Amino acid sequence: MTNQSMNRPITVTHIISGDLWAGAEVQVYNLCKALNEGDDIAVNAVVFNPGILHDKLLELGIPVTLINEETSGPITIARGIASHSRDYQSDIVHTHGFKENVLGILGKDLARVPYSVRTVHGNPEHRLSLKKPQKWLTSRLDILLGALRQQAVIAVSSQLEQSLQPLFPGKVHKIFNFVDVGEIIHNWQPRHHLPGPPPSVAGIVGRLVPGKRMDLFIRTIALLNDQGHSFKGRIIGSGPLEHELRSLTKDLGISDKIAFTGFVNPAMTEISKLDILVMPSDHEGLPMTLLEAVSLGIPVVAHNVGGIPEVLAGWERSGLVDDQTAQAYAKQIVAITSRMATSEKTHDPASNDITHPPGFLDKFSSQQSSQRYVELYAGLVTKPH
């Protein structure tokens, strides 16, 4: 019997760690919020950690079960997922992350939930090789479970779609990460991002970990000032490298030009004040920070990886970098500043229009993308066996 014949919404259970408030967590929140506003999907969730995501989902009135991984082993978590799924009569278990994939699949099989999908939010931060057999084996297990026990794999960018197709043939669906552009504009009152009086403020957002390349951002700010361009930098986030990064600012003589804000929630409190956003991460999927900044028309210089080029293509307020050096980032920042200074001459000061990349609202708005999820879920539960 299909959900249509039962005349009730499709019940989808999301499984996510929730230990951080980062890109995947923000996207899960945006998705649950968008689905919860409609009538087609009954949303609920299982999270493995107390924290921001857990609390924000509860604020939306979404049922959430907390199975704390600090005090629960894998079998206990899987049984908890199964119990939750039976209680809410889940039709689909939707997993977000490796650990969530494995435990979610085990839990859904214990509860005999008929369908499961996963979202792949980004590329792995480390290349897998037989030199690290445990990581290689767990990755193989994850892929095998996805191929055998899940019915759909969602890629958040075209680059991810291409890399996942050979692993999950016939199961990959591209659905971009998305934001509520109207809500962001309403909440953060965008200003027109044309060059103001110096110093300009460049910012970077994320965990202070090696892959985010905060060190490269700091060296870029130092180089810009050495070249005679007045810039200050803001590092928005926290993490294990903070002491090392603070030492780097002292070594480069720019400790007075770099501010460490620590973790800020919501990050838009700081992002909305930036003159330019810099994203030098070694690896990315489709960053939520990027979509949020672009929603306000904030210029972006970013590493040419993952889904970033799809967002910024054809936008004069952006620059992509292939060479991971301070020289390359500084060059793009100066070029954007110059282009915007030129455009200021023809800009109407009375205009409040926000400039977005071509097609941005069609590709990355909440209404378009959330409907694609509804269609995917419906296609699974109504598909003949």
Automatic annotation (TrEMBL):
Q: Which SUPFAM superfamilies match?
A: UDP-Glycosyltransferase/glycogen phosphorylase
This protein's name: Glycosyltransferase family 1 protein
Classification via CDD domains: GT4_GT28_WabH-like (cd03811)
| InterPro entries reported for this sequence | Glyco_trans_1 (IPR001296), Glyco_trans_4-like_N (IPR028098)
Q: Which residues form the Glycosyl transferase family domain?
A: 200-336
Residues forming the Glycosyltransferase subfamily 4-like N-terminal domain are 23-181
One Pfam family of this protein, by short name?
Glyco_transf_4
GO BP term, example? carbohydrate derivative metabolic process
Molecular-function annotations in GO:
glycosyltransferase activity
Locate the region Disordered: 344-364
